[in-house]
Amino acid sequence: MKFGPVPVAHAEGSLLAHSVRLTGRVLKKGKVLTANDIAALTDEDVTEVTVAQLEPGDLGEDEAAARIAAALAPRVGTQGAEAQGLSVTAPFTGRVNLHATRLGVVVLDAATIAHANEIDEAITVATLPDFSRVSPRQLLATVKIIPYAVNERAVAAVEMALTGTTAIDVRPVVRPSASLILTRTPGMPDKLVNKGADAVVRRLTALGIDLAARHEVAHETRALAEAVVLTEGEMVLILTASATSDREDVGPAALIAAGGTLERFGMPVDPGNLLFLGDLAGRPVIGLPGCARSPKLNGADWVLERIACAIEVTSDQIAAMAVGGLLKEIPSRPQPRSGGPLVPKRPKVSALVLAAGQSRRMGGRDKLMEPVAGRPLLRHVVEAVLASAVEDVAVVLPPDAADRGAALEGSGARIVLNPRAEEGMGRSIAAGMAALGPETDAVMVVLADMPDLGPADFDRLIAAFDQEEGRAIVRAVTAAGKPGHPVLFARRFFELLSGLEGDHGARGVVEDHREYLTDVPVTGDAASVDLDTPEDWAAWRASRAEPNQTESV
Fold first, then answer.
1. Quick one: pLDDT at residue 172?
2. How many other CB atoms are found less than 10 A from the CB of residue 23?
3. 334-357 confidence digits (pLDDT tens)
4. Is 525 helix (H, G, I), strand (E, B) or coil?
5. At which of 259, 294, 329 does a domain end?
6. Out of 71-75, 172-176, 380-384, which region has the weakest mean confidence (pLDDT)?
7. What is the DSSP letter of 291?
C-alpha cells in the first residue's frame, strides 16, 4: 500500500486518509474518492490530499478483517460461530466485532491469539481477559486492521494460524442446579444468615442456576457432614457462620467426614482467600468465603463460574489466579451483581419496513406485489431484512392491503397497521415507532420498494452504528456517494421519529442532525433504486435480464 500526499488530479479511486472540510460538506477519512469528489476539491482550490492507494496483493481493511474474523469463528461446522457461542458483525472501517450469544465463561487460546498478533503489526485481535464471565450480546473480541489495507499474504498467514483452533469459545452453564448449606452459631441473627443466602442466590440467578435446596445446620462438623451427604443439586455450596481458617476447620472437615475429598484450601485472591474446594461423588463442593455475603466480585465468583460451565479448576489453576487477584484494589472493576460500569454490548436493532404506500403511479398495479426472484417484491425485501443482523422486523401496512398481508404470512415479520396511511410516509414511520419494544437501541427505516438491497447491505449499516464514536445516524449511499435508503437511527431520535407527519419521512431529522450522520456505501446503486412506475420496472428488469412479468402475484 502506498500512503502519502498526492495531487488531487491523481487521487480518484484512492482512500482519503484525512478528512477534508468543504463548503457545506465533509469528505471523511476512509472515503473512496470519486470523480465528483475530485471536482469538488478542485472547485475549492484544494491541490493535494493525503491518500492510501492499494497495490497488487493488498486487501482492503474490511475484507481483511472479515477474513480473519471468519477464521476465528467460522460460519459453519463443529467449531463454527454458533457452536462457539459467538456472533460476528459485518466489517466497517477495518473492524469486526465478536459478541457472545449465550451466558457463560469465555475460554481463550492465548498462545494462538498472541501468535496471530505477531504475524503483522497491521493485524490486531483483542479480547476480554481469559475466563471472563459474559452474557448474551456482550462484546468479546474485536479484529482491527490498523492501516487501510494489508498484504494478502499476511492475512493468509493469520488465517492459517487460526484455522482448526478454537481461539475463542464461550462455555455455557452446564450445571443448572445447586444446593446451599448455611451453618449457624448460637445467637447468630437471622439477618446475617439471610443476607448471605440472598447474595449467593443472586449469584446463582445471574448464571441461570436454580437453587435446588437451602439447608441451615449447626456450625458443627457432624451436622454439616450429614447435610452435605443428603443435599440435592449438581453443585453443593457451603457458607459457614464462622470463617474457615484451617484445613481441619468445620467446613473442610465435614466434607472429609461425608466421604468427599478436599482439593484446595485457600486461594491467592483478595477478597476470597478463605475458599475451599472439594468433591463428593463427582459433585463439586465449594466452601464460600465470608465475603460471599457481599455482592461484590470475589475469588469465589471465579471458581463458581468456571465449575458451573464444566471448566476444570485444579489447585494449580487456583494458584495461578494470583496475578490479577488483588480485586479490592481495583475500584473500577465491574461488579455485575450490584451494578457498576456498563459492559459493551451488541446493540439491538429493529427494522421498520414501510409498505403502506398507495402505488398511485403504477396504473392500477400494486408495485409491492410485483414478482422478484419468484416472489412478491414485499416478501423479497422483508426476507432480505430478516436475513440480516436485525433482531425484530415490523412491516407497516395500510388497513386495506390483504394481499400484502398474505404475502408476509410465515415470514416471521410483525405487521403494524397504519390507519392513516394516506397521510404519507411520516405517519407510517410514527405508526411503526409506536410498535417498537422498550429495549430497542436503534431502528433501521427501510423502504419496501428497493429490490437490490441484500442482507450484507443492512449488516454494513448496523456495523457502522456506534453512538460513542458519533455515528448515531447511518445512511446508505450508492457506490458513487448518492444518498439513499435505508437509514438507521439511534434511540436518541425516537421521539422525533414518533412525531413525524405528512409525506416527508425522516429527511428533516437527518438534515437537522448532520453532525451525527455517517454515510455508508452499499452495493452498486442499491441504495437509490426504487421502482414506482411500470416504466421503472421494465427498465430494471431489462437491465437485470429479469422476465418482463406484468401480472401481480
1. 97
2. 7
3. 444 444 455 688 999 999 999 998
4. coil
5. 329
6. 71-75
7. G
**Same-domain pairing of 526 and 393:** yes
| Grid-cell match 465470608, residue found | 290
Spatial separation of the C-alpha atoms in residues 145 and 159, rounded to whole Å: 14
Is residue 464 pLDDT above 90, yes or no? yes
Enumerate the H helices of 45-93 as residue ranges. 61-72, 81-84
133 and 185 fall within a common domain: no
d(CA 227, CA 390): 50
**332, pLDDT greater than 60:** no
Helices (H), 232-332: 250-257, 299-308, 315-320
Do 502 and 398 share a structural domain? yes
Please choose, from the candidates 136, 221, 211, 134, the residue with its C-alpha nearest in 3D space to the C-alpha of residue 177. Answer: 211
523 phi/psi in degrees, rounded to 5: -60, 125
Ordered alpha helix ranges (H), 173-281: 190-206, 221-230, 250-257
For 403, the enclosing helix (H) or strand (E) is helix 402-407
Cβ pair 339, 296 in contact under 8 A? no
User: CA 201, 129, 177: angle at the middle one, nearest 5?
Assistant: 25
Contact of 115 with 100, CB cutoff 8 Å = no
**Percent of the chain predicted with pLDDT > 70:** 95
User: What 8-state DSSP symbol labels residue 420?
Assistant: T
Sequential DSSP letters for 80-105:
SHHHHTEEEPPPBTTEEEEEESSSEE
Q: CA nearest 234: which of 191, 183, 180?
A: 180
Beta bridge partners of 142: 97, 126
> How many domains does the structure of the chain reveal?
4
194 and 167 in one domain? no
Please name the residues in contact with 364: beta carbons below 8 A apart, sequence gap of 6 or more: none
pTM: 0.86
H runs (alpha helix) in 145-207: 152-162, 190-206
Taking a C-beta distance cutoff of 8 angstroms, is the pair 146, 94 a contact?
yes
